[in-house]
Design goal:
The complex is a heterodimer of chains A (241) and B (185).
Chain A lengths: L5 H8 L5 H13 L1 H20 L24 H15 L7 H17 L7 E7 L4 H20 L4 E7 L15 H10 L3 E6 H9 L11 E3 L2 H10 L3 E4 L1
Parallel strand pairs in A: 1-2, 1-5, 2-3, 3-4
Helix pairs in contact in A: 1-3, 2-3, 4-5, 5-6
Chain B lengths: L1 H31 L2 H17 L10 H20 L19 H6 L2 H11 L3 H11 L5 H8 L3 H22 L3 H10 L1
Classes of the chains: A alpha/beta (241), B mainly alpha (185).
């Protein structure tokens, strides 16, 4: 008859018990087949969980987001930090329920960028779009264009990059996008705009048997994450739509 | 010399982040069961870690510190998406494995069974289970990472394993059927 609690047996399997308790339990296990079976069962579960998640399938295992050289960009520190925070705040806001509200939030994010005084350094902004939500795709283009225009009007330098990955790749796929002409027009009008697709996302689609053809003049980066990391390292501001 | 040493420390920190990244991803995936979201969570975690490096006073505690950031990022994700009225409901939230039938087929049966069973666990239980089983954190460390009492860690782990046992038993070959067949023979 074993009256050991599951909590105690879990602690035993997870090596949480002291030497004395462990010795005592080892003794009981030797004499009690049912107890031994319970312990084996917990061990088995633990091993199964470990086995199931053994392969960390991320393709980004080797790269890291690089820390920005804040001293070089002290003049834009406040604006940049604000952008990073807001980028985070809006970045994961992908629920379909409040699109109108979110549109205004993203819009205001770009307005904040425009309103920040970053005249001392050329503006460098990377915009990530990773969601196929049409509203997000449109917003990314609308606000990128608006920023490029306003910087040009005020005679300030601005480099912008749109990086599309995941569902956001729809923006750049020639057979899917609704913005073929618009992107082409933007690229012609603003040579300071670079439009980039994520090779990892392309590969994932290809694995599913989907042929991916991108619009012309689209640069392909090894992965969106690597590209963003590279830009952050170079002192760019990062916004995620 | 001092400047050189600062650079060396920065490199060591980044090297440590690089090494721990697959572990963070594995846990993020085990929580979200969504590879894109797991990548995002890890990216956010690493960016926060780099920005708040100065908060880490003891480098020996780096693992726990990073997983705490990951847990906060995961919590924030739910807040931003307003997926539930009360953030405390996160502990009870279950997610659905995003693996499609094709990828299921590619995986060994036992792997897909376990992934499916873990994905049905309430989030609070799943977090504890994966931190203990995958990363071998002690109960105290898990309590600190998730900001919950050690007793809660133990009870959640216990419930998680009990549920897992039931789910996996459901999928396992029906022993009673075998017995019936034996009787027929």
């Amino acid at each position: 008859m074993n009256n050991h609690s599951d909590e105690l047996l879990n602690s035993f399997v997870d090596n949480e018990l002291g030497l004395e308790e462990k010795n005592e339990l080892f003794g009981s296990i030797e004499q009690d087949e049912a107890l031994k079976a319970r312990v084996c069962e917990i061990r088995g579960l633990k091993e199964m969980v470990r086995h199931a998640y053994q392969q960390p399938a991320s393709a980004h295992a080797g790269s890291l987001p690089k820390r920005r050289d804040w001293s070089r960009y002290a003049q834009t520190f406040a604006a940049s930090l604000f952008l990073l925070l807001l980028g985070g705040v809006f970045g994961w806001n992908v629920s379909e329920k409040h699109d109108a509200t979110k549109y205004h939030k993203v819009l205001s994010l770009f307005q904040i960028i425009q309103n920040n005084d970053i005249k001392q350094e050329p503006g460098k902004i990377i915009v990530q779009v990773s969601d196929s939500n049409p509203l997000r795709l449109k917003t990314a283009l609308d606000e990128t264009e608006s920023l490029l225009k306003s910087y040009r009007q005020t005679g300030q330098n601005l480099k912008m990059e749109i990086i599309a990955n995941g569902g956001g790749l729809d923006l750049l796929r020639s057979d899917v996008t609704q913005y073929k002409e618009r992107i082409s027009m933007l690229q012609k009008e603003y040579p300071n705009l670079d439009v980039v697709g994520c090779n990892q996302s392309i590969t994932e689609l290809q694995k599913k048997g989907i042929a991916v053809k991108l619009l012309p003049n689209i640069r392909v980066a090894s992965s969106a994450l690597d590209e963003i990391n590279r830009r952050l390292q170079q002192g760019w501001d990062y916004v995620r739509v | 010399m001092e400047i050189l040493s600062l650079f060396c420390h920065a490199d060591a920190f980044q090297e440590q982040l690089k090494q721990i990244r697959p572990k963070l991803y594995r846990v993020a995936f085990s929580w979200s069961h969504n590879s894109a979201l797991a990548d995002d969570l890890v990216q956010e975690t690493l960016i926060k870690a780099l920005r708040n490096k100065s908060q880490l006073r003891d480098s020996a505690k780096m693992n726990g510190w990073l997983f705490s950031i990951l847990a906060n990022c995961w919590r924030d994700y739910f807040r931003r998406n307003r997926m539930m009225e009360d953030i405390d409901e996160l502990e009870e939230h279950c997610c659905v494995d995003d693996a499609n039938p094709e990828s299921d087929h590619e995986q060994s049966q036992i792997v897909s069974r376990v992934l499916g069973a873990v994905s049905r666990l309430p989030m609070g239980q799943r977090q504890v289970l994966t931190l203990v089983d995958l990363e071998e954190f002690s109960y105290i460390e898990v309590a600190s990472i998730l900001s919950i009492p050690v007793g809660t860690v133990m009870s959640r782990l216990c419930r998680a394993r009990q549920t897992l046992k039931l789910h996996l038993k459901e999928f396992a070959p029906d022993q009673s059927l075998h017995r019936q067949i034996r009787r027929v023979i």
